[in-house]
Design brief:
This protein has 249 residues and is α/β, with parallel strands linked by helices. It has two domains: 3-138, Rossmann fold, CATH 3.40.50.2300; 145-248, LytTr DNA-binding domain (OB fold (Dihydrolipoamide Acetyltransferase, E2P)), CATH 2.40.50. The chain has helices at residues 12-25, 38-48, 64-68, 86-94, 106-122, 127-138, 188-195, 238-248; strands at residues 3-8, 29-35, 52-56, 77-82, 99-101, 145-150, 153-158, 162-168, 171-176, 181-184, 200-204, 207-210, 214-217, 222-225, 230-232. The strands form four sheets. Strands 2-1-3-4-5 form a five-stranded parallel sheet, with helices on both faces. The longest helix has 17 residues, at 106-122. The protein is elongated. It starts with a strand and ends with a helix. The mean pLDDT is 91.
């Protein structure tokens, strides 16, 4: 299929560079418009009904998130492009939405395009974009919901329900309250980076726990958790775990 695409970025060199990369390295992607503002982007999206929009976050007058709020529902996929905005990037990662850092790297661009193509073929929803807009609206560093990408699309889980995260090769299993289990296609390191400041701590090469769900730990190196779950405490993680756990309590 031909992936109909629109580029939205207020910086002309960035638009031109991205356009050239798409033309040279992304076959079957057609650029329908290249826009320098939210206003022109809204008109182009309404006119062309694209499959994908490459969207800069920071632009004069209105930003990329405000553009998305103009559409309900959002009937296109989005890959954000940004040079900074750490808080925005954190919200994007919590919502399992793709983003590219400037200057854009060709391999990352190709990977993002291939992922979008797969999502369109699988007819996945834009639930992650909806949750992103909710996260951005919170205007705070702590997010109550995490969007998990899996083989079927996306699933939203409450961070407070996560008891234990377990590594399984390149995947991560989330063991939740009420004995629910969700498997993500991303590895444990990805979620460690996201959740380490949200009350979670790595306790083993294969495990990360929610500090709020810890019931006890033993001298034998076992951590007891809610729902009768448990996991080992690795020797390399013990000192940091004990220090963090005492402060948490």
């Amino acid at each position: 299929m031909i992936l109909k695409t629109i580029i939205v970025d207020d910086e002309r060199p960035s638009r031109e560079a991205l356009g050239k990369y798409i033309t040279d390295y992304c076959p079957n992607v057609e650029i329908l418009a290249s826009c320098n503002s939210v206003k022109t982007a809204y008109s182009a999206i309404t006119k062309y009904n694209p499959h994908l929009v490459f969207l800069d976050i920071e632009m004069p007058n209105k930003n990329g998130f405000e553009l998305l709020q103009m559409f309900n529902p959002i009937n296109f996929k989005v890959v954000f492009i940004t040079a900074y905005a750490e808080y925005a990037i954190k919200a994007i990662r919590f919502s399992a939405v793709d983003y590219l850092l400037k200057p854009v790297m060709v391999d990352e661009l190709v990977e993002a395009v291939n992922k979008v193509r797969s999502e369109i073929m699988l007819e996945t929803s834009n639930l992650n974009l909806q949750k992103l807009l909710e996260n951005i609206a919170q205007k705070r560093e702590e997010f109550k919901q995490l969007v998990v990408s899996d083989s079927n699309g996306f699933k939203v889980i409450e961070t407070s329900d996560i008891i234990l995260c377990e590594a399984d090769g390149y995947c991560t299993h989330f063991l939740l309250a009420r004995k629910e289990k969700v498997t993500s296609s991303k590895n444990l390191k990805h979620y460690e980076e996201l959740l380490s400041n949200q009350g979670f701590i790595r306790v083993h090469n294969s495990f990360m726990v929610n500090l709020s769900h810890i019931k006890s730990y033993s001298n034998q190196g076992e951590i007891m958790l809610s729902e009768n779950m448990s996991c080992p405490l690795g020797n390399a993680f013990k000192q940091r775990f004990l220090e963090r756990f005492k402060k948490w309590r």
